[in-house]
Design goal:
- The protein has one domain: Orthogonal Bundle (Arc Repressor Mutant, subunit A), CATH 1.10.10.
- Helices cover about 45% and strands about 0% of the residues.
- The model has no long low-confidence stretch (mean pLDDT about 90).
- By secondary structure, the chain is an all-alpha fold.
Length: about 60
Amino acid sequence: MIIPIRCMTCGKPVGHLWEEYQARIKKGKNPKKVLDELGLERYCCRSLFLTHKDIVKDTAVFKK
């Protein structure tokens, strides 16, 4: 759904990095390099970004 403000495992603030990550990925950069540049070193934070599926637009269709 929406990227969490903090990592669910370690508690590091990561929500503010999501838009920057998406912008760089759309430009064709390597996700590993982008995560390194953003300072996401822990595997828990990295997996949060790599496995996130943005489905807000899909679920917004069902809003009453």
